[in-house]
Input
Amino acid sequence: MDQLEIKALLERVASGDCPVGEALMELKLEPFRDLGFAKVDRHRGLRQGIAEVIYGAGKTPEQIRAIAASMREDGDKTILITRMSPEAAELVGKELPLAYHEMGRVGIVGAMPKPTGTGRIIVATGGTSDMPVAEEAALTAEALGNEVVRLYDVGVAGLHRTLSHLEDFMSARVIVAIAGMEGALASVLGGLADCPVIAVPTSVGYGAAFGGLAALLSMLNSCASGVSVVNIDNGFGAGYLASMINHIGDRNPG
Output
């Protein structure tokens, strides 16, 4: 039960359409559903405004299917599954309305919500090789109700590619800058735009990139103000944070 559903329930109580005892029973339902191998958080949407997200890596296809099915039974309209394998997608898709995005390894059960954020989120990559992480970020943000603009392969190795989208960057509410190698894209965008920049280092690069560590340290040491950094290849974390920023101001409907 999310905030809007709680609000609607309280309004029904106030109008006399719902007995207090019935409303109390709905609110007293256990805060999680125990599946034995997982305890699905049923009140996360109420606490945080966003329902639980299923992290698919390390889970069997059967476990993912059971968790998603329980969330759907509890009324979740959009269920986000990250790091989902094609094998898991095949199994889940037989029983649930799943859209699987192989590049980002993201599965979405149910319908995509209409954008409710106040602005646009731009997801930009330094190169084409960064697109799997970028798709995880972009699909996460879209599943959480945001308009997303993808700008791929606009890295600083050809600065004219970056500057050709200057108007887009200047009009964004949040920018997610995704790059491997030396990770310079985040600093450049941080020096151009007037909005928060969320930097995502990727594990793309030759040996001395150390699996993304070089980009991570470069981004952490950015001389541009307003740049924050998530972990290596963490497109989900960046998309989630970008959504939170884009929804500031509508967290307490009243």
In short: The CA atoms of residues 100 and 107 lie 4 Å apart.
